[in-house]
UniProtKB/TrEMBL annotation:
It catalyses: a 5'-end NAD(+)-phospho-ribonucleoside in mRNA + H2O = a 5'-end phospho-adenosine-phospho-ribonucleoside in mRNA + beta-nicotinamide D-ribonucleotide + 2 H(+). It comes from Saccharopolyspora gregorii. SUPFAM superfamilies: Nudix. Its cofactor is Mg(2+); Zn(2+). Transmembrane segments: none annotated. Keywords: Hydrolase, Magnesium, Metal-binding, NAD. It is an enzyme of class 3 (hydrolase). NCBIfam families: PRK00241.1. It holds the Pfam family Zn_ribbon_NUD. This is NAD(+) diphosphatase. Belongs to the Nudix hydrolase family. NudC subfamily.
Length: 309
């Protein structure tokens, strides 16, 4: 088992994630010391990943990300570039491009994330999340003055009050609720494709623990009591800047399900056999059930539960 996989898998009793969530993979050095180094020298040996406004990047026919030589953009780092990390003497940067990736066949993480290798997956995930943060943090929350990028893209400093702000991540819980035997509780949102079901999820509120959030979200979304809440693993989900924290919990399948109006279109208990059957198909679909894609932590949670003995 790789170090990344071991870090993502629960050490507690019961089922575990079947493997590391795909967007949790990363191989580059991204320590703070790297960001404090001489930016010009790091830029000289750099490669730049272009990301459009929808989080799409160019994917080569071999499934690798396409990078540009940093020298194409000048001898010094452009102020809009962000440093992602370094590996084998090469630094990797990201830059927002005005190009329309949709017209050029570029792909986002939802589409290409499962195909990327560990290095590319980590770089694109970081790039999308970091660039999204910059796009929405152009003004100081204290005095309203414009902010500027500093520390090679890992902070912004206010031009008015000199306040420094760092990239934000919004924590969200995602929970696989099961009956302690062979049924799992799945639900679907109204905006999803027909028959698409997944586990329950929601954002953590101010002053709330992760476990309390799990219990509240399950109660709000489907009206049942979640117990024996335990942690499974996590995955960055930069849409726009979330961190999905995976949990498992148990609920009583005899309790009536009360889907939240306007948020949950349908909720139902699904057998382990049906989840296994869907998992064994190429696209995770059987009649009446379409599972979340493999790039999501929800898929890893469901697979871990379905085939746990």
């Amino acid at each position: 088992m790789t170090e990344a996989c071991a870090a993502a898998v629960s050490d507690g009793p019961g089922f575990r994630l079947d493997s590391a969530p795909l967007l949790s993979r990363s191989t580059v050095d991204r320590t703070e010391l790297l960001r404090d180094g001489p930016a010009a020298e790091q830029w000289t040996a750099g490669r730049v990943l272009l990301v459009d406004g929808k989080g799409r990047a160019q994917i080569a026919p071999d499934g690798r990300l396409v990078y540009e030589d940093a020298a194409v953009f000048g001898e010094q780092p452009t102020p809009r570039a962000v440093l992602l990390g370094a590996q084998d003497g090469t630094t990797y940067w990201a830059l927002r491009t005005e190009r329309d990736g949709a017209q050029e066949g570029w792909q986002d993480l939802r589409v290409a994330g499962a195909q990327l290798d560990d290095t590319d997956a980590g770089l694109l995930t970081t790039a999308v999340g970091l660039l999204n943060w910059h796009d929405h943090s152009r003004y100081c929350a204290v005095c309203g003055a414009a902010t500027n990028r500093v520390k090679v893209g890992w902070a912004r400093r206010c031009s008015g009050c000199d306040r420094e702000e760092y990239p934000r991540t919004d924590p969200a819980v995602i929970c696989l609720v099961h009956d302690g035997a062979d049924q799992v509780l799945l639900a679907r949102q109204p905006v999803w494709p027909p028959e698409r079901f997944s586990v329950l999820a929601g954002f953590v509120e101010v002053g709330e623990s992760l476990e309390a959030c799990v219990r509240r979200e399950v109660q709000e979304e489907v009206g049942v009591l979640a117990t024996e809440v335990r942690y499974l693993g996590s995955q960055p989900w930069p849409f726009p800047r979330s961190l999905m924290l995976g949990f498992a919990a148990i609920a009583d399948p005899t309790e009536p399900l009360r889907p939240a109006d306007g948020e949950i279109e349908e909720a139902r208990w699904v057998s382990r056999a049906d989840v296994q059957a869907a998992m064994r198909t190429e696209d995770g679909i059987i009649p009446g059930l379409r599972l979340p894609p493999s790039v999501s932590i929800a898929h890893r949670m469901l697979k871990g539960w379905a085939f746990w003995a």
